[in-house]
Design goal:
Radius of gyration: 27 Å
Distance between the termini: 61 Å
Number of helices: 7
Low-confidence stretches: none
Strand content: under 5%
Mean pLDDT: 84
Helix content: over 70%
Number of strands: 0
Length: 160
């Protein structure tokens, strides 16, 4: 779906930019080219966002933070500083797209590593729970450690 949106937006990039700035032909040309470059990398961002959300949900703080900071910080800042001196205005136009490709390249190995980690069997984890395997003896000990309220407690609460 995102790829279809990218294609449609890429085809009508000039018209889309004209909705916001139609009286300046230079801004229209620059905006249309920038939007077209961004449309090429837009489908890649779904992988980056999905990977980042997965890492955050799993509590993988360092990889999630690394991936979250990659697009606008670690990749975009060097791109916007290095590409314009090399390519002029085209460097400015492609800087965000280059940052998106670099973020995607970073997300792939991080996500594959986590997925491989999930597929490895672990003796201390059940498939759906991180808790260690409990035997019946462990469960009985856990229940015995929980202090049950007395009948007097319930009577006092009930008759208040």
């Amino acid at each position: 779906m995102l790829a279809v949106l990218s294609v449609v937006l890429g085809i009508f990039a000039r018209e889309a930019v004209a909705l916001f700035r139609d009286n300046d032909p230079l801004a229209l040309d620059i905006g249309a080219r920038t939007l077209l470059y961004q449309c090429f990398t837009l489908p890649l961002m779904s992988w980056v966002v999905m990977s980042n959300m997965m890492l955050q949900t799993m509590g993988k703080v360092v990889p999630a933070s690394l991936l979250a900071a990659s697009r606008q910080g670690m990749c975009f800042l060097p791109a916007i500083l290095l590409l314009p001196p090399l390519f002029g205005m085209t460097g400015v136009e492609i800087a965000q797209s280059v940052a998106d490709v670099l973020s995607f390249a970073l997300a792939i190995p991080i996500t594959i590593n986590v997925l491989k980690e999930l597929s490895r069997p672990s003796p201390t984890r059940t498939p759906f729970c991180r808790a260690s395997h409990n035997t019946n003896d462990n469960r009985k000990q856990t229940v015995n450690r929980i202090k049950q309220p007395s009948a007097e407690y319930y009577a006092d609460v009930f008759y208040r």
